[in-house]
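Thread: assembly with ligand

MN 10:42: here's the input set. Chains plus the small molecule as SMILES. Want everything predicted jointly, not piecewise.
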Amino acid sequence: LAKDLHHSCQWGSGIRWGNDPTDTGMQRLALSAEDKSVRDWFIQTMKDLKCEITVDEMGNIFAVRPGRRKDVPATFIGSHLDTQPTGGRYDGILGVLSGVEALKRMDEMGLETEGGVGVVNWTNEEGARFPVSMISSGVWAECIPLSKAHNLQEVPTVASLPTAASAPETMKTALQKIDYLGSVPCSYKTTPMAAHFELHIEQGPHLVSAGQRVGVVTAVQAYRWFRLKVVGRDTHTGTTAFEHRADALFAFAQMMVRAREVAAAKGCLASVGIVEVAPGSVNTVPGQVSFSLDIRGPETALVAEVEKELRSDFDAIAAKEGAGIGKPCRVEWTLDFDSPAVKFHEECIDCVQQSAHAVVADAPVADTKSLVRPIMSGAGHDSVFTSKRVPTSMIFVPCKDGVSHHPEEFCSADDCATGASVILQAVVRYDRK
Amino acid sequence: LAKDLHHSCQWGSGIRWGNDPTDTGMQRLALSAEDKSVRDWFIQTMKDLKCEITVDEMGNIFAVRPGRRKDVPATFIGSHLDTQPTGGRYDGILGVLSGVEALKRMDEMGLETEGGVGVVNWTNEEGARFPVSMISSGVWAECIPLSKAHNLQEVPTVASLPTAASAPETMKTALQKIDYLGSVPCSYKTTPMAAHFELHIEQGPHLVSAGQRVGVVTAVQAYRWFRLKVVGRDTHTGTTAFEHRADALFAFAQMMVRAREVAAAKGCLASVGIVEVAPGSVNTVPGQVSFSLDIRGPETALVAEVEKELRSDFDAIAAKEGAGIGKPCRVEWTLDFDSPAVKFHEECIDCVQQSAHAVVADAPVADTKSLVRPIMSGAGHDSVFTSKRVPTSMIFVPCKDGVSHHPEEFCSADDCATGASVILQAVVRYDRK
Ligand SMILES: NC(=O)NCCC(=O)O
Ligand SMILES: NC(=O)NCCC(=O)O
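BT 11:07: finished. Tokens for the full assembly:
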């Protein structure tokens, strides 16, 4: 598994942080040239394992190892091969590679299943290049219209994106460019699944700080992504008193400070990742600022409350900046993505839990069950969308310091192997039900 | 004058704000193709007025109408033809065009002067494309080394800069590209002046709100330009609690809010015009933010005090963000430009004051002298650097709402004409001394 995983990371390896050949992060933005290379490798690997391959209109790749029965859909292991611009080697990649590993193990063991067992690579899960996360599992679940996804434009400023120089691409042109615009409709009706299991690093500190080995993911927190625009007035930095300014950037700065206060008070998160400032000159007070806002919380209603409070607070901040000249700033919100809180499927959760207990059973501790815990996911995953249509659940393994979306993101080979064993067993358990 | 001024604005006309042909802003960044066109026009116009033309190593263009005596340097009228990315039609342009107008009037009147009278167009006064303002008068005054200026790189993100796609250019390559890298050394020793006068819009609200017509500029406030870099840690927006973050953007936001507080308390200004955020992904907490900081104040010591206080406050803000994980943010400062406060030359100030009183003498008010006032400049001008080597002063005329570095920057044809009359008389007065 570790060998395959790092082999697949040759395409798009990113920022180096140590001396070992594998001590680099990843920069494999969705539908980039590097993403094409790893996709080609994935398909070839699955063909060598005698899988049937389907590529749909969103470039999702489904590889199925047939089972005894042809009349039931396969049970899938899925995740994504795309990464953040300064991402690591485990987020998503571990999930897909654990699927490859599972099929290899099943072949070695000569294991026959009732239904087939599949591995799926979902397109643009990160939402880093095209700013809607999990968009292609969303189209598959018929929660996001195909046309909306195809027309979605890439983020223009994403770090070192090779295409950043030219006009921003849409998902459709990017799919065409790397030859991954399949002809099969992207839908759970056309490419059905019996269930969807996903192995992922936790991306948070709970497992690692408690010394636990497996998280049985029962739920995913809610989140909403917005694009905001603050419009003020360009003016001279040297001659314009503060009271005469409608400084869109100063308004933004206050908004960001306020966003953390409001979110923290409600046990939620609020984060800004992208900022664009115009016109962008040392001695011109910026008249326009656009930025992304990512609000998360354990309950959908809490996220809505944070949004509501921030809408009113941001209006107040904007109204004050420029009031002195009767030209206050104004702020516009656009909702890009809305992912309500999700609860996973009891049966899938049970399969994962039993498998996890089995895998850690011979650990050298008194109470091996304490190495396994139920957990809520802070991040979104393709399993959020598959769960809307088919039984779904997830497995978390610890990652160093709980850090991800960072080149130094790290999951030990042992933890990777534990996760892969759990997902293989969970799939087999589910298939037997 | 108005005709010539708007004629010259055909090259690089910017954002439209009204229906009249001249109701647009300007976007003529230094050494752009548009800047080349207006330079070519300027040289041809001055040749038609029988001027001798000199282009130096910084692309400064000196045009001299000879006087009776060949043994004394000319008295110059100077300013700049470059603009902000979202600039207007008067900042700098009025100053150069008033020089053209003055020479035309002198020819019409058949006026002979003792020394010659020159008009100079200084390169990249704005500091918008190459982020050191007044850099070419700075080299001429031997206050900035030629090599530093030639190697200065353009700001990569300046709005709609046609070259932004490719690697950033240096001033030297940009000068070569538009064929304005002259062979004459850029120095007050090689191209001497008897004095330098500059007409400019005020760019502030004092004249216009007091209903006054001419500002006799006696001084220029101090300013310093910095580039700052905040380094934190990239991490996941959905899984990373606030206490586990070293969010470089959140640190920046607090710094910007603090900068205004500190500057305001000392009667100074602090402004941020450029911000770059990396890696630039909705769901990654930014690990790096670079930004420009422009600090100004009526006294050099006050600017230094603001800087000192902000250095310590920014360190404290950075130290707090990320303290929870033992990886606090850190902040680095680079000084790009330092312009101490300046006092202009008594004799030049007198020439301007007497001329201003003469020009407004037949205004229909009881006390015409009240239409003229001494004033300090909030903005920097090429006169700051010429004042280090030759007698210098400036004339301000009102501009609408005190707004500049904005497409709607406006100065009435009457006010332009008043300013042009004052500068012509001031030059003639100085020549006679
Ligand atoms: N797991 C992960 O990083 N997914 C990206 C979507 C999100 O931002 O939560
Ligand atoms: N007058 C003017 O806008 N000059 C640019 C230098 C400055 O920022 O003050």
